[in-house]
Design goal:
heterodimer, A: alpha/beta, Rossmann fold, 3 domains, five-stranded antiparallel sheet, B: OB fold (Dihydrolipoamide Acetyltransferase, E2P), five-stranded mixed barrel, 1 helix, about 5% helix
Chain lengths: ~525, ~80
């Protein structure tokens, strides 16, 4: 029988990392396998470095831990062999690497992330590539239970595996209250996100003036939604008001204050970066600290993120969708997959910042965990229904239907969603004149320009979609970004203007304000 | 490692959620974002006092960030 869930790791790397204490990790994995079995999940551990495991999956063993191409091929082979409903990657990037994708917004003067470390390729059928545009059609439910980068103490990983093994599903009422902190300059955007999810933003705190000391009551709420600044290799998130960037949230004040089962969505730049604690005076990141304290899942970004100061976009949306799906009863992994789908489905094509958003947010936590119980239909309470499904066989059956639906959505997105490809062309004269005029009206003094073609796959041009082929040909994106001479305390001083051009005609414009 | 250069204010990470005014060290080898070891990565008043000055600094390089542990202001 095919397993429902596969735990993918590199056992050789774990043994090398934990040496004679690897047995503790192994025991914790077996406890999780046992706990899953009691919940009706058949879980299989597959080592990508094991010749026999990979032979059974019709794949090749990974020889070098950081060989991203080999690991992606191994994960694809495992998925194709077992078709699991859940893929749980076990270990940080020094056990199972992220896939480093090209940053579609790379700019040495702006977004200087050369690559986007991503788990998105593991969720996609597309074969190994560095191009983020190849991974816009996720179909698999994936999450990562990380350990601490370069730490030889297994206690952290054993603790996280224990959280996954002991987890329990709770009623939505236990997730109705939230903790939220927003940088003061982004409070309008955060309030809008919270209102969409919870119907109110009354519990939102802003930094400054609040933080980083939060009460046990505040931190004890089971949904955390954070929209602050983040920095690489840093155990703090930062608020902002003018030139003041106080610490809004810090790992050291979270310890032993997090409620078991907490789910966190974080919009901050580098919010879910798994860094080596040695790079921050042995202080692990906020994401690692939450998970150690019993959080079930942490959804965040590996790199610099995007979003408007007012209204919602990019990071706001994908984080909202994740929380919304989890509250609706999705597993953490399915919530992640559906958040990606909902984000992408809103567009005919992704602009470069949208594409980066798609691939930079990932789930840290066991993807099979359902924090919130779905509300059953009244039919499920009838004797006949209970008799028909007394072995709970409907759980697996309906999960398979959800996976089929997700595969359909992901496949459609892959085949039909346009993605940006940077190319070296100056702005065409007439388009340049319009965008420059908008830039002047927006108060931009000086700006840089980038050009992108929009690439579509031929597979999507079927049936009535064929009539859009001429329109898609020659579609291009032109992006101007520059600064406005506004007061220092004003948000949105940097403005990005994106024009969509089709067959030489400007058909759409979008103005994004920096945070 | 040691670096020598001039401290200048710049808009960093333009167009992103992390866009902010910060300080960079302009050296013969290139331009590096400055951060004090253990300090605020976005704005640090101790660093702000160095704006416009030539300094020689000791620290570690992380990608394009120079994490400064000590420094002297050059005459």
């Amino acid at each position: 029988m095919k397993p429902d869930k596969v735990i993918i790791t590199n056992v050789g790397a774990l043994k090398s990392k934990y040496d004679d204490r690897f047995g503790r990790v192994q025991a914790a994995i077996h406890r999780l396998l046992g706990a899953d079995k009691k919940r009706g999940l058949q879980t299989k551990l597959v080592a990508v470095d094991s010749a026999s495991d990979m032979r059974a999956a019709h794949g090749k063993a990974v020889r070098e831990v950081d060989d991203q191409r080999a690991v992606k091929k191994a994960v694809d082979a495992i998925y194709n062999a077992y078709e699991p409903d859940y893929i749980m990657i076990l270990g940080a990037q020094d056990i199972v690497p992220h896939q480093d994708l090209k940053n579609p917004v790379y700019d040495p003067q702006g977004d200087e992330d050369k690559v986007v470390p991503s788990d998105m390729p593991y969720a996609c059928e597309a074969s190994y590539s560095k191009e983020p545009g190849d991974f816009v059609g996720p179909t698999r439910v994936v999450g990562r239970v990380p350990d601490l980068v370069r730490s030889s103490d297994p206690a952290y990983l054993v603790s996280l595996l224990g959280t996954a093994a002991r987890h329990r599903t709770r009623p939505r009422s236990e997730y109705q209250q939230y903790f939220s902190v927003s940088a003061e300059v982004w409070k309008a955007s955060t309030a809008l996100s919270l209102t969409k999810i919870f119907g109110s933003s009354l519990s939102m705190a802003t930094s400054p003036p609040k933080g980083p000391s939060w009460t046990n009551t505040e931190l004890g709420r089971r949904i955390h939604f954070i929209n602050c600044h983040g920095s690489p290799d840093d155990p703090n998130f930062y608020g902002q008001c003018g030139r003041s960037y106080p610490i809004a949230h810090t790992a050291k004040k979270l310890v032993k204050k997090i409620m078991d089962g907490t789910v966190i969505a974080v919009e901050c730049c580098y919010g879910a970066q798994l860094y080596d604690p040695a790079d921050a005076d042995m202080r692990p990141g906020i994401c690692s600290t939450y998970l150690k304290d019993g959080a079930y899942g942490f959804f965040g970004s590996s790199t610099i993120a995007y979003g408007p100061s007012e209204g919602n976009g990019q990071a706001d949306l994908i984080c909202q969708y994740f929380i919304d799906e989890v509250l609706d009863g999705a597993s953490l992994g399915e919530g992640t997959l559906k958040a990606r789908h909902r984000f992408a489905q809103a567009y005919t094509h992704l602009d470069p910042t949208d594409l980066k958003t798609m691939v930079q947010f990932h789930l840290l936590g066991d993807p099979s965990v359902h924090p919130v119980g779905a509300v059953p239909h009244s039919l499920a309470r009838t004797k006949s229904f209970k008799q028909a499904f007394k072995e709970r066989q409907n759980a697996k059956g309906t999960r398979k239907l959800r996976r089929e639906r997700a595969a359909r959505t992901g496949t459609n997105l892959r085949n039909s969603l346009g993605t940006p490809n940077r190319f070296d062309e100056a702005l065409p004269g007439e388009i340049g004149t319009v965008l420059e005029s908008v830039a002047r009206e927006s108060g931009i003094k000086s700006y840089g320009a980038q050009s992108f073609t929009v690439k579509y796959r031929d597979e999507g041009l079927v049936e009535n979609m064929k009539r859009f082929a001429p329109a898609r040909e020659g579609r291009a994106l032109y992006m101007l970004s520059g600064s406005r001479p506004l007061p220092k305390e004003a948000p949105g001083r940097v403005v990005v203007i994106i024009g969509t051009v089709q067959n030489g005609h400007l058909i759409h414009m979008r103005r994004l304000h920096s945070r | 490692m040691n670096l020598r250069g001039r401290v200048v204010k710049r808009v960093l990470f333009a167009g992103t959620k992390s866009e902010h005014e910060g300080l960079v060290l302009i050296t013969a080898a290139g331009e590096f974002k400055l951060q004090l070891k253990g300090g605020n990565p976005f704005w640090d008043e101790k660093l702000a006092a160095l704006q416009g000055k030539e300094i020689e600094a000791e620290g570690t390089m992380r990608e394009t960030r120079f994490i400064m542990s000590q420094w002297i202001v050059l005459p």
